[in-house]
Automatic annotation (TrEMBL):
Protein's name in the database: HAD family hydrolase
Cofactor(s) this protein cannot do without: Mg(2+)
One matching Pfam family: HAD_2
InterPro entries according to UniProt: HAD-like_hydrolase_sf, HAD-like_sf, HAD-SF_hydro_IA, HAD_2, HAD_sf, PGP-like_dom2
Native source species: Pseudomonas nicosulfuronedens
GO-annotated biological processes: DNA repair
Alphabetical keyword list: Hydrolase, Metal-binding
GO MF annotation, one: metal ion binding
PANTHER family per the UniProt record, alphabetical: HYDROLASE-RELATED, PHOSPHOGLYCOLATE PHOSPHATASE
Length: 228
């Protein structure tokens, strides 16, 4: 049975119930730019990408420069207005994360958010100093490029086989596959397990506590230098 020493989590739709707010903010920004609305399914399909990549996937006609920046600002401003009360953690997340920390796992976040947004939501949850490392799309590369995961592995001195990526989008699982690490598909976020199953996750869950139970039967692998 594979042992892990590092758990890496996506943020939106995996730890935090924020998908509805992302969909609403994207729609408001589109209207502000005079663009047609997209369906919930279409918007959910870009969640996980960095914001510029997400916008241009939904709206290829939005040009680089001022039009893209205006869309980004409209999206960000509306999302912030919805986040006066921070999006809640999914049931079981708070308790499980404390348990993972107590068990000796290193913990990380790899998200499509920008650094400013990630720092804000971490502070909102009281997690500013909780994770060993966090990586945001604007300081690395957008998913599914595995650069974020490589940077996390290097920081934590962990090999890919000893790390586990947990996410709710195809971009999360494809990023893990490209990095050579196992993944967990969560079916309560942006995409269904039927969609995520294509990426051959090591585990599929419909509740965060299922991940907690699965890991409870495993030993935490000691952290060694990469290559040892």
């Amino acid at each position: 049975m594979r042992e892990y020493s590092l758990l890496i989590f996506d943020w939106d739709g995996t730890l935090v119930d924020s998908i509805g707010r992302i969909v609403e903010a994207m729609r408001v920004a589109a209207v502000g730019s005079g663009l047609p609305e997209r369906s919930d399914a279409a918007i959910k399909g870009i969640i996980g990408l960095g914001l510029p990549e997400a916008i241009q996937t939904l709206y290829p006609e939005v040009e680089e420069g001022e039009p893209l920046e205006r869309f980004r600002l409209d999206y960000g401003n509306h999302y912030l207005s919805l986040e006066v009360q921070p999006s809640p953690l999914f049931p079981g997340v708070s308790e499980a994360m404390a348990e993972f920390r107590g068990a000796g796992y290193q913990l990380a976040v790899a998200t499509g958010k920008n650094r400013r947004g990630l720092d804000r939501v971490l502070a909102g949850q009281g997690w500013t100093d909780f994770f060993d490392i966090t990586r945001a799309a604007d300081e690395s590369a957008s998913k599914p490029d595995p650069r974020m995961l490589h940077e996390i592995l290097e920081h934590c001195r962990v090999g890919a086989r000893d790390a586990l990526m947990v996410g709710d989008s195809p971009f999360d699982l494809e990023m893990a596959r490209r990095a050579g690490m196992d993944s967990v598909a969560v079916g309560y976020g942006a995409q269904s397990l039927e969609v995520l199953r294509e990426y051959a996750p090591a585990l599929e869950v419909n509740h965060f506590n299922e991940l907690r139970a699965w890991l409870a039967g495993r030993s935490v692998k000691p952290v060694l230098e990469v290559g040892n």
